[in-house]
Fold each of these.
Amino acid sequence: MPRRAGRPRSGRDDVARDAAGQQADKGVWVAIWVDDVDAVHERALAEGLDLTHPPTDEPWNVREFHVRHPDGHVFRISRSTI
């Protein structure tokens, strides 16, 4: 299903799959607001974290990237662009 412009992702774009390939929503999504998304992204790359969405200027006036915790939780590292 295509996303509507101007709306954040719901988590359904980036879901876990079980051994049979079935969708298995795991964990929660959390937004963490920072001063410099790109600096935090560089640090996350250096630490070898599981990055699931690159730094992107989203249509809802937020620059963000996503990182998945080993427990399945997804953290949105974000900054307002306005």
Amino acid sequence: MESLASIGKVLVLVGASLAVVGGILWGAGRLGLGPLPGNLHFGNETWGCYVPIGLSIVISLLLTLVLNLVVRWLGK
């Protein structure tokens, strides 16, 4: 029974994480952060592919800043 409880905890954490990420992406879309320079979009009428390189760089910079602040705040 303990294994089911631990799987349940993991599923709840994954679900909460997905909800937070979804909320952040939803908010970013409302702020107009979707079509940034460096994002690639190619395809034709029947298919398409979107590669958000510019958005990935922005997210990476923001996460680096946040994680550095958290590490300094924790004093490690």
